[in-house]
Amino acid sequence: MNILEMCDWEAATVPLEATAERAIRTMLDRHVGAVAVIDENHRVAGIFTERDVLLRLSLGERDPRNISVREVMTAPVEMATRATTAGEALATMVERHYRHLPIVDDDGQLLGMLSIRNLLQARVDTLTRQIDQVRSVVL
Amino acid sequence: MNILEMCDWEAATVPLEATAERAIRTMLDRHVGAVAVIDENHRVAGIFTERDVLLRLSLGERDPRNISVREVMTAPVEMATRATTAGEALATMVERHYRHLPIVDDDGQLLGMLSIRNLLQARVDTLTRQIDQVRSVVL
User: For residue B5, which of B126, B108, B118 has the smallest C-alpha distance?
Assistant: First the structure.
């Protein structure tokens, strides 16, 4: 199973010129903890997450209606490709304390948004299948 | 392994009369996504999470310095006890869309804060051990 298959259906995105408010409303509407921020060439410019909200907007210093998501997003952001293994993705996320990793093609365009929860869930599924197989051989 | 052993070291807490700002600063300082809110009898009154920040404070309608955490926390909150199994805890969290579950004693006092990530990580560890054991029997 490659990391793209582990992602939830269709990643949430906002354009780079969106306000922080729009990015927040997208997260609320889509029930996700992160949105990918996409530039005019359809490439991933950064991500904006619940953690960014907590860090940069939650104490009310800035008005999310008057601020661009570009100013409060996490960028540059580590990204994965189709060739990245689940193990490599998990190592990056644990090391950098990221909960999300955009998966992009060779042109930097978004293919999916991988969460650490997707990775752990997929690992549970794989191990459960393996143990069932090994047991069926033994018993 | 019981669910208490799966928790991160010492849960972050704030008193019920704390401001939302204090709760947010506690989350930032402790690098956690949720704090338990504790009443005057040392019982868990609710939890306050990154999701609550996104839902109730991120759009700047209210000033977190002038609002009590009591007004923006999630309460009542589902809780687990020492007797709750990992499977029961996971089922509750998936069903209710919670990422955190406080573990309390018979008196409602906080023992730990369980995250869905703790649960998945513990399950990966258990399955990995099991598969190693079964393989060592086969090979």
Answer: B118
